[in-house]
Amino acid sequence: MRASRIFTDQQLLPGSQVTLDKSACRYISQVLRLRVGQTLVLFDGSGCDYEAELITSKRGSSTAKVIREMSREQPPQLDLHLGIGISRGERMDFAIQKSVELGINTITPLLTQRSMVQLKADRRDKRLAHWLGVIRSACEQSGRSLLPQLNPPASLSDWLAVHPGGLMLYHKASETLATRPAPEGELNLLIGPEGGLHEPERLQAVACGFTGVRLGPRVLRTETAPIAALAAIQVLWGDFR
């Protein structure tokens, strides 16, 4: 049986002692039903898994002692950065979760003309915290020890200004992933929100060095598109080979 992995935002070092947050405590006591003295696997997002021993276990407060470094995640074959138009609720959560499972390294939620979600400052902070929780849970499940970077929401124009060049999903494009040359080291991937990118936005992306590619003859939902694209990219050029 695969050991359950638990994220902590505290730095982990052999011999150190950490206090786990309430969510982890509930999981340990109510789901795993671990007892004091039993071992678990912790990671802090820096790239290593650590074996730890449970010292105290309560619903609201659990502590563990780090025993040793178990394994270190290998660097990815391809540094993948996803810029994706913000969609509503579970669609955005799903896109983020599956992108993490498929090896994305950086995610930037994008505010575009067709974005149906408008984030004011207070709501933006709540959504960022929620999406970070989605990323952490996806890492726990998928065995990733390196936590992908989540950037604050940015306008498409601002994102393009600092990410010159990459691939843009567009169902009417003439090129496919298979016709593109292999990227060297890193790849920016642009995906629109529900309804896709507006025509002027696509032209702006092309002017900034992005190439439109299609994923077969069908139009994919915004939450399906990153799954299909990242899986294909990993097969062609990444760590699925």
List keywords for this structure.
5-stranded mixed beta sheet, 8-stranded parallel beta sheet, Ribosomal Protein L25, Chain P, Alpha/beta knot, 2 domains
Write the layout of secondary structure elements.
Elements: E1 5-7, E2 17-20, H1 22-32, E3 39-43, E4 48-57, E5 62-72, E6 79-85, H2 89-101, E7 106-111, H3 121-142, E8 149-150, E9 154-155, H4 156-162, E10 166-169, E11 175-176, E12 186-191, H5 199-207, E13 210-214, H6 225-236
Helix pairs in contact: 2-3
* Contiguous helical run count: 6
Radius of gyration: 20 Å
Report the strand count. Answer: 13
Query: Percent of residues in beta strands?
Result: 25-35%
Give the SSE string.
Answer: EEHEEEEHEHEEHEEEHEH
CATH topology of the largest domain: Alpha/beta knot
Count of discrete domains: 2
Flag low-confidence runs: none
CATH architecture of the largest domain: 3-Layer(aba) Sandwich
Through-space gap between termini: 26 Å
Basic shape? elongated
> What is the CATH superfamily label of the largest domain?
SPOUT methyltransferase, trefoil knot domain
CATH class of the largest domain: Alpha Beta
The structural class is: alpha/beta
Mean of pLDDT: 92
- Let me know the largest β-sheet: 8 strands, parallel
Helix content: 25-40%
